[in-house]
TrEMBL record:
Protein name (Swiss-Prot/TrEMBL): Mycothiol-dependent maleylpyruvate isomerase metal-binding domain-containing protein
Entry superkingdom: Bacteria
Gene3D superfamilies reported for this sequence: dinb family like domain
GO function terms (MF aspect): metal ion binding
Pfam families: MDMPI_N
Annotated ranges, domain Mycothiol-dependent maleylpyruvate isomerase metal-binding: 13-134
């Protein structure tokens, strides 16, 4: 992923998460997900909190009111609107970033990153959690090879140090026939 398409990748990941959350049935919010010990609601809270965190790092605005790594499993109001506000904050923050900016603040332990990688990290978070929610609720995968390829570039650049914090499970071995989506999921410790 380079300077020219990071906004497209971020928009695509946001749309994947938005679409999957809109497709969650009323009885599916407490279902288990590929995120160990988290329900659909908790994954949504985590994903929304992370998007708010990325926005806050750029704008200096408020961080999430709840710890994204210890989600309560309770959302007041409409989950779709809850996510929409978080995605709007994130997209709005990245709209202020120059395409070729060399140092963009992030909430990651790595700190500031080039624009393409900061946005790629934000997109990776939204895209993979869209997949988690889709799998948990029986929806089709929102990850396409066109989206997974650039997300893998970002993942290879940021994920290894984050595994030490428990943000990602250990990578799983590649399998014959893996496409870009399966390769990304295995790299992030998920079974395609």
């Amino acid at each position: 992923m380079g300077e020219q398409n990071w906004k497209t990748v971020l928009t695509g990941s946001h749309e994947a998460l938005r679409t999957v959350v809109a497709g969650v049935g009323p009885d599916a919010w407490d279902l288990p997900t590929p995120c160990d010990q988290w329900t659909v609601t908790q994954v949504l809270q985590h994903a929304a909190g992370d998007q708010i965190g990325y926005a806050a790092a750029i704008t200096g605005g408020p961080y999430p009111t709840e710890d994204p790594f210890a989600p309560s499993g309770r959302i007041e109001g409409d989950p779709v609107a809850y996510l929409a506000a978080a995605l709007a904050a994130s997209a709005g923050a990245y709209d202020t970033v120059a395409v070729d900016a060399e140092s963009v603040p992030t909430p990651l332990p790595q700190g500031a990153l080039p624009a393409w990688l900061a946005a790629g990290a934000c997109a990776l978070d939204a895209g993979v959690h869209a997949w988690d929610i889709a799998v948990a609720t029986g929806q089709p995968s929102p990850l396409t090879p066109e989206l997974a390829g650039p997300l893998m570039v970002a993942a290879r650049a940021i994920v290894e140090p984050l595994r030490a914090y428990g943000a990602y499970a250990p990578a799983l071995p590649a399998a014959d026939g893996d496409d870009e989506v399966a390769a990304l999921l295995r790299y992030l410790g998920r079974k395609p």
